[in-house]
Amino acid sequence: MRAVIGLGNPETKYNCTRHNIGFATVDKMLHLKDIRLSEKFKSFFAKKDELIFLLPRTYMNLSGEAVIQIVNFYKLEPKDLLVIYDDISLEMGTIRFRKDGSDGGHNGIKSIIKHLSSKDFNRLKIGVGPYKGDINLADFVLQKFTKEEKEKMDKVTEIASNAAFEWQNADFEHLQSKYNKKWL
What we know:
By secondary structure, the chain is of the alpha/beta class. It has helices at residues 21-32, 63-74, 107-116, 137-142, 147-167, 172-179, and strands at residues 2-6, 38-40, 43-48, 51-56, 81-91, 94-98, 122-129, 181-182. The radius of gyration is 15 Å and the shape is globular.
C-alpha cells in the first residue's frame, strides 16, 4: 500500500493558487482514473487498488494531522508516502522528486515531519516561483495564477500526475533523472 498526498487548503477560494498545486495535481490524477473522493481521516480520501489518495482538509499548516491518521490506520511507513506540494524556490514549470530532507520553510511539510517524527518520506515538489521577497510570502503563495500561469501549470500538473502514478512502481533514481527538470 502506498499513498499520494496533495497539499493545499480545502476552501474553493484557494483553488488556482500557488499553495494549492498539490491539490491540483492529485485532482488531475483522480480525473485521469475517474476516481471519486469521500471524506475520511480529516481529508478528502480515495483508495484504488494499492494506492491511497489524500487531500488533507486540515489546511496546509496542519497537514500532518491527516497524514498521521492514514499512516496509523494502514500501517504505512514514511517511505510509502509521496507528498506533492508547492516550492517557491523552484521556477514555475519545474518539478523535482526528492527522497527526504528538511521542511525548507514549508509549513505543511513541517507539520508532516512533526507528526511522523521522520523526514524520510518521498516528495514531489512543483515550482511556483521564484519568490523574490517583493511581497509578503503568504500573499505570494495564496495569490491566484494569471491566465498564462494557469495554462502553464495545467500542463505541469499533468506531467506531475503521470510522474506520481509512475512513482508507485518505479525506481526513485530513475524518476529523478526522468522528471527533475524545468518542463515549461
